[in-house]
Amino acid sequence: METSKFFSLVEEFELDEGYQKTYKSFDEVLPTLFPRKGWWLDQLFHYQGFWLSSFALRGSMLLNHHFKPRPTDVIVATSPKCGTTWLRALVFSIVNRHSFDFSDHPLSKKNPQELVFFLEGAIYIDGSTSFIDGLPSPRLLSTHLPYSLFPTSMTDDTSECRFVYICRDPKDVFISKWHFANKLRAKDLPPIALEEAFDSFCKGVSHYGPFWDHVLGYWKASLESPKKVLFLKYEDVKKQPWDCVRKVAEFLEVPFSPEEENKGIVEGIVKLCSFENMSNQEVNKNATRNSERPISNSDFFRKGEVGDWVNHLSPQMAEALDQITEQKLQATGFNFR
Ligand code: A3P
């Protein structure tokens, strides 16, 4: 059983009583949760309707007990493999467009993960929220956590922080996840078979799954609170990236001026964040993995296409997944088309 290393964290960082309580309750909750094998042989725990790693669960608990939201916070939210890297890059370049020149942009030197920090990880750098508390406003943070696991201090009407969410056709998400899981698996393990991963995904057992519940949580929130949650589809962004860039800018209350439009800033952002441009940056070609960081920058760029599932799923598998999707979305008013 994994533990939070409660005592060593508390001792090493001399954390105050509040943090001690949170780590203690994490250590108490974890053994009570039903664990399942994750796709790269980590464990997933069923917590409040979702399958989370212990890392994500600890992040969520700290978020709920210690995070101090600011009205200017922007949360880039996704279920894994829906285009997190892309959305991070888009939001970063839209919000910071006055600070940088496209010919010498931070995105050409840094992976978007270094510019838009991963909330559930960054929240306990040094054991506490001190790193995140020290970031200047507006804070751009990224998350895979379901909407329902956020504190009401961030989701209710009194809070002004905003969420930009992107979803994607589950068949493409599954294929992207399966490739990613096999990159992450230890070298001495055989790859996870497509059929095994498919079975888990269909049952909802994948990081931050069930996938459909994750999407529907943000979808409903975007209907109820359109000023708080912007809901995008990967396929739409691919088709009309300029419209999406304008939509995000308007949502974040930093619309493009006629002068910026004339200067081609929108087109510049679309080009800067395109799969072709980003995957060709030296920093994103880096394929170094080690025990400290089992994921390399290059792992986040594979094909970047719509409909690649057709090259991997049998017609029967595709139909089965479509049927599950139809069932899950029944009477919700939402579809992936
Ligand atoms: P594929 O595996 O289908 O190629 P995430 O960033 O959430 O981990 O999602 C990864 C998926 O987004 C991968 O999909 C990856 O190739 C794709 N991706 C990464 N950068 C992208 C970009 N700039 N434009 C479009 N897709 C991108």
TrEMBL record:
Keyword annotations for this protein, in alphabetical order, are: Transferase
- Sorted alphabetically, which Pfam families does this protein's record hold? Sulfotransfer_1
Is Transferase given among the entry's keywords?
A: yes
User: Is-annotated flag, keyword Transferase?
Assistant: yes
- Similarity field: Belongs to the sulfotransferase 1 family.
Matches recorded under SUPFAM superfamilies: P-loop containing nucleoside triphosphate hydrolases
Q: What is its EC number?
A: 2.8.2.-
The record places domain Sulfotransferase at 71-333
Name of the protein described by the UniProt record: Sulfotransferase
PANTHER family given for it? SULFOTRANSFERASE SULT
Organism of origin: Hibiscus sabdariffa
